[in-house]
Amino acid sequence: MKPLLFLLFSVFAFGQNVELLKKVNGISETEAEKLNAVMLPDFKLIDSYRQGLTTHYTYLPKNAEDNEVKNCKLGNPCDRKIMINYNNKNSVFNFESATGEAEPLKQFWVTYVQAEGGEKKVYTYKNREDKIWLNFFNVGRRWMIKNMSQNPQPW
Length: 155
Description:
Layout: H1 2-13, H2 18-21, H3 29-39, E1 43-51, E2 54-61, H4 66-73, E3 82-89, E4 92-100, H5 102-113, E5 122-127, E6 132-139, E7 142-147
Antiparallel strand pairs: 1-2, 2-3, 3-4, 4-7, 5-6, 6-7
């Protein structure tokens, strides 16, 4: 009986949070910052800037020391940083990507997107009804969650 209850609890405790995932497209800057906080609860914002139509947010773990923060801000190699990018057109933000260490990004993926088992090269979440398409994959030494919802290719 206990394994059955755990299984039922796991289905509700981990995996798709469609209401949260709907917030990857067409949100305000404030909502984007709230989404970032959900994605990276143990991280602090150290920098943000706009470049063309893209708004970039740079995060480090909350326990990062001042020297590490300073080095990241100067553009020096910064292994623990996570970059979150949004396309920003007419003050409407669309999540583009989050790139960084695997563990924090995977924690978000498993908790809010898709509780998949096993090791894959690319994890994919598609929800045609709500027009949400996210991929989670390895890029060299880093990992990326990429919003594919605006992709013109057929789903």
